[in-house]
Every structure is written in C-alpha cells, then in structure tokens.
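Subject: sequence -> structure tokens, single chain

Hey, anyone have a minute? Need the predicted structure for the following. Not urgent.
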Amino acid sequence: MTSATPSIAQTPAPAVLVLEDGTRHRGRAYGAEGTTLGEVVFSTGMSGYQETITDPSYAGQIVLQTAPHIGNTGMNDEDRESRRIWVAGYIVRDPSRVVSNWRANASLDEILVRDGIVGISGIDTRAVTRHIRSAGSMRGGIFSGADAELDAEEQLRRVTAAPEMSGQNLSAQVSVTEATVTPATAERIGNLAVLDLGVKQATVDNLAARGFDVHVLPQTATIDEIRAIDPVAVFYSNGPGDPAASDDHVELLRAVLDDELPFFGICFGNQLLGRALGLGTYKLPFGHRGINQPVLDKTTGRVEITAHNHGFAVEAPLEGSFDSPNGYGRVEVSHVGLNDHVVEGLRALDIPAFSVQYHPEAAAGPHDANYLFDRFRDVVVAHLAQKDAM
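Reply:
Had a minute. Here:
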C-alpha cells in the first residue's frame, strides 16, 4: 500500500518509521517520498540488494537491510530477479553516496524514486532488527516528506488499519497473466508446468538448463490447462502471502499428485505441498530472510548455507517417516533449519514429489543447494523410464 511522489531532493526530506506497537524511528527519505504500509521484516544478506528488492516474495513487505552500507554497486539491468521491484518499502542505515561498479547504469536511490518505492535511511537498523526479533514481525509504515509531519496518532492509525500478512493471498499481485515459454538449454526432457506464484528468472533459467521447456503459467491455471501442455512434471514457485489462504492452489496440487506427475516446489511451493499432503502451516515469529541460513540435508548429512525468504513454515515431525493425512503414502522431513529446527524440506516416499523451503537458484547467494535442480531432473527422468517400461 503505497502513496508516493517520484522526486529526488538535493537534501533528503525528513522521514519516520512507525511500527504497529507505537515504536517510532526518525530518519531521512530514501527513494520516493510519501507513505507506504506493509509488514516490516529484516533481511540478513550482506550483498544482493538488487535481487532482494526484485524478489516477488517480498510483495506487501517493508524490507530492512541489516547490512549497514547499501547501494555502493548501484543498479543494472542484468541482476533483476523479476520484471519489477516488489518491496512495499525499504529501510537502510547508510546509503552509499556514490556508485562504484562498471555494470551500474543507475543508483539505487534513482531506481527507487523512478518506481515509486518509499524508503527511509539514517535510522538505527540494528535496534529495529533486535526489536522485531524479540517482538516478531509487525505492520509498519514509512512516512516521508510532508507525510512525515502528519500527527503521530494519525500515522499509527494508518499502520494499524493496514491488513496483517496472515490470511492474505497475494499470488494474483505477482503472477504473470499469460503463459510464457522458455526453451530448454540442455538435452530436452519435455514440457515443465511452472505455476507462477512469484517465480524468479534465475529459477526458470536453472530449470531450462536441466532440459525442460519451461511453461510459466498464471496462478489461475487449472488442472486441464496444465494437462493441455502434456507436462512431464509440475513445479510450484516461491511467492508471497499466507499458504493457509491458497486453497485453490492446494486443490490444484492435489490433482497434480493424483495424476502421478512428478512435483518439485520451493518456498511457498513447499508450504503448499505440505498442505496438499494434509499438513498444517503456521507463521514464524520473524521469518527467515537472507543468504546465510544453515540447513541440514538429512539424506546426505551435509550442511548447506542457503538463501531464504519466508515467514510461514510447515508443521511436521522432524524424525522418521509418517503417513500423509490425505492419503499420499509415507512422507519425511528431508531438510531442517539449524537455527531454529524449522521444517525446510519434504519428501514423499511413495510418489515422485519433494520440496524445499529455501531458494536453490540463490541469485545472489550461495550455490550449496543448486543440486536440487539436478535431483528434480533425475526424479523426472526415472519416472519417465518407469512409465516406458510398463
């Protein structure tokens, strides 16, 4: 929810960050001036701010960067994760005064102004992070320029009137409206149906590099529309919102599983696989957001440093296998977060379906989890070979 004026001032205008519990932090306008409202969350990545703000999973959220110095490499046309900036607002401590990268064609501030993204700088981001870590993610608002001088009670009223993240279905805001196709860039396996719940381009590129003709479908796609492309498998992407508010996507996934199509989901797709299998989901106190999250792959015993962006998680027993409440056979938790023992992956043992809660494409970020795209390709190839042998 943003109301912004796209203008760059020589001297930054005043700005204030207001949290729903009444906490206030005064700073300077960064980006467009005006008002923006959303859930305030923090991201712990030391780099990759361009990838962060263009990640569709951040729709509806005001993102605070815990790294103090932001913007030094500017912005370019190659490192975007999607077609636009999705953050509802942006919070930084010390924005760079100069751009120092040969690939840059604009400063971060200029792009924020151009796209109407209201931000704030010059506040104690460490203090805000510690507060959210203790009290949990909460609604907030950035008020800059003339809006910074609004009565404090009026600012807080606007913040508390904004919708909470729980219960929101935001897929329609970020999904494509028409199908697109990216041809395979390796030996072709077949058509892959990707339900776009907020997919990133790096994910599409990784799937194409594994031999799939990647059909990115709108989030409104039906099972008949998926069947029409004769897919060898189905993929659910990352995305914003509450998985408990996505019943249609869960029912669609159950139809996919009933068709015995191989399935791979990441992030939001992991939560929706959990629901399709009959598991519950819940909201994390402050979520996992950053490119430095340790996860244990229980299959190999290997610890991966991974990229995360999620505020919800799946409820499931961490040890052993269990029966899917919805009748899809045995299931196990395949990956576990080592910071707080959150479910970070699911694997169905009797059907070809698995998912992870993090981002294996990891741009920008570590590449420890990139093997998951190879694992998906192997699952699909094995499934096709089994069908041919029948």
